Amino acid sequence: MKMTPSKSGHPVFDPQSADPGFQPHVHPIKIIIVIPVYNHFSTLRGVVAQALHVHDEIMVLDDGSTDNVLNTLEGLDVHKICHPKNLGKGAAIMTAAREARRRGMTHMVTIDADGQHNPDDFNCFPPAIRKTPDAIIVGKRNFRNTNVPRANRFGRSFSNFWLRLQTGISLGDVQSGFRAYPIFVLENLRLHEKRYTFEVEVLVKAAWAGVELRQVDVSVYYPPAKERISHFRLFVDNLRLSFLNTKLTMRSIAPLPHKKIVDSNHTPPET
């Protein structure tokens, strides 16, 4: 994998030079928090500083921001990687997975940079990872006592429905970006989505591949509408989701076996 310095001095990932993948390595469990960011200048430092209170391995992946957002992290001991241009959240997660593997990590927990997630809830993930180290673990956001936008409530229910239809598995929050990924799972799935749709694709294809999907409860914070930072484009991204769900549903009913990447006799990693 090739990293070249950018004008700001931060390493830049060249997607064309990526290694094709690594073999699974899960002894012992080593976790890194990954925070993908795109133009979250006002919130990133607070999220990272709070994450450092609960874990000492943090990676920030700048997905081509134009607001010099990494400059807000001066004095914080974190790994910084940046894309030379915006490639999408899915691409950022995959770049982070390759870099995390290079650093000897086995799992990564993703946290959004907009302040929606409470980094303190990271503590819910390590026990769940140790219990089911081959599983993707999704943070189910508590929508009961928060100022959750109506569109987010509908979007979550809609995505939950499609996952159940395509895999037979019920999850409470398919759209949550607060997740734990075993890195070997990301390395061994054939994933094509580069943007928000990645987070749906990876769950469906992981389930087809025999990867267990589990969840833990986490909190969520939605600031007043005028203060929210979101790069979700209502029409374009919903169109992408609809197209993806059509493809996944058609594949789910095709009479063809899915390649498995998890052995039912797999020995859990040492802790």
Strand order of the largest sheet: 5-4-3-6-8-7-9
Helical fraction: 25-40%
Number of helices: 7
Q: Which blocks of ≥5 consecutive residues have pLDDT under 50?
A: 4-8, 13-26, 267-271
**Overall 3D form:** globular
Indicate the proportion of strand residues.
15-25%
CATH topology annotation: Spore Coat Polysaccharide Biosynthesis Protein SpsA, Chain A
| Topology pattern, helix = H, strand = E | EEEHEEHEHEHEHHEH
Main beta sheet strand tally, sense and closure: 7 strands, mixed
Integer-rounded radius of gyration? 18 Å
Structural class: alpha/beta
Structural account:
By secondary structure, the chain is an alpha/beta fold. It contains 7 helices and 9 strands, in the order βββαββαβαβαβααβα. It has one domain (3-253): Alpha-Beta Complex (Spore Coat Polysaccharide Biosynthesis Protein SpsA, Chain A), CATH 3.90.550.10. The strands form 2 sheets. A 7-stranded mixed β-sheet has the order 5-4-3-6-8-7-9, sandwiched between helices. Helix 4 (150-167) runs parallel beside helix 6 (198-208) and helix 4 packs parallel to helix 7 (234-253). The two termini are 29 Å apart.
